[in-house]
Design a protein that fits this description.
Layout lengths: L13 E3 L4 H11 L8 E3 L8 H14 L1
Parallel strand pairs: 1-2
Length: about 60
């Protein structure tokens, strides 16, 4: 952990969310407070995902927020 001069934690926590099994599991565990909170979740949309991936993202994004 990086700390600034005042001792405050300056760590930025980001989840790279590809909507596969591993990243979805991490996102769910964070939402359920089984893992520490994150600052941001990002998804690099190449527009080449399967339609089921977009459906999963549309269904579960509100719950993750």
């Amino acid at each position: 952990m990086e700390k600034n001069g005042g001792g405050k934690d300056m760590t930025l926590r980001v989840l790279s969310l590809g909507w596969g099994v591993q990243s979805w599991t991490l996102a769910a565990m964070i939402a359920l407070k089984e893992l520490p909170p994150i600052d941001y979740a990002i998804h690099a949309d190449t527009t080449h995902e399967m339609s089921n991936t977009y459906a999963l993202a549309a269904k579960w994004t509100p719950w993750l927020e």
